[in-house]
Amino acid sequence: MSHLSSRGLAAAVGGHTIVSGVDLDVPRGSMLALVGRNGSGKSTLVRALVGLRPPAAGTVAIDGVDLRTLTPRQRATRVAYVPQEDGPPEDLLVGEMVAMGRIPHRPPWAVDAKGEAPLVMEALELVGMADKVDRPCQHLSGGERRRVLLARGIAQGADLLVLDEPTNHLDVHHQIQLLETLRALGCTVIAAVHDLQLAAAHFDAVAVLHAGAVHAVGQPADVLTPATVHDVFDVPATQLTDPATGRVHLVLGPGAPVPAPRKVPA
């Protein structure tokens, strides 16, 4: 399992800095959720964390190794990135798409490698898509495509999984199943998510992006407080603790109490 850290990280698009001063420590085997309003820089930060976008400033390291010192193949054996959207060729079969996750482990110029089929099937079974292995990708629904993309990331065999909006297009059942699957893998997981309730209930830590920086980072109960949710998302919220699991859950909307206005020091 991998440990990811960033120091003073800044990510930019077209020369415009979107988020800066990002200091993160994601311990081995833990799950971190990146949350924030639309346009807060979650996807931009994710791409910088996996090395797809050169940092405008600062560093990212995996197990103490600066990402910039790794070749693309070396990086791909350490971190698997599952994007928000991906458009494979329409005639590509599901099994072929998932097998693409094994490319970093193949010898140069190899089309495929022995022993990949069991790894592909295992990944598809984990996301409940093994029965679709021979289906053309063009026949997949949006939710099925998300699950196949995750299977490709799992098949990559990296100890660090970084996902951009992994629960998009999934119904509630498959959202929870996906997050429980990630937990069972034991990998280090970083995921940009928009659902605060999922972030609170299923992740070990949460980083809130706001105004071009990390507004708060820590355990969900300490970070997703009614005051923070109100200040960042302009939504009333309250915390509830599940007595059976100890997980923190958020109640959002008009039914939740609005924090009292903060007093400005005289």
UniProtKB/TrEMBL annotation:
Coiled-coil blocks: none
Keyword Iron: no
GO MF, one example: ATP hydrolysis activity
Signal peptide as annotated in the record: none
Sorted UniProt keywords: ATP-binding, Nucleotide-binding, Translocase, Transport
Pfam family membership, one: ABC_tran
The keyword Nucleotide-binding is annotated on this UniProt entry: yes
InterPro entries: AAA+_ATPase (IPR003593), ABC_transporter-like_ATP-bd (IPR003439), ABC_transporter-like_CS (IPR017871), P-loop_NTPase (IPR027417)
Domain ABC transporter: 4-236
Protein name per Swiss-Prot or TrEMBL: ABC transporter ATP-binding protein
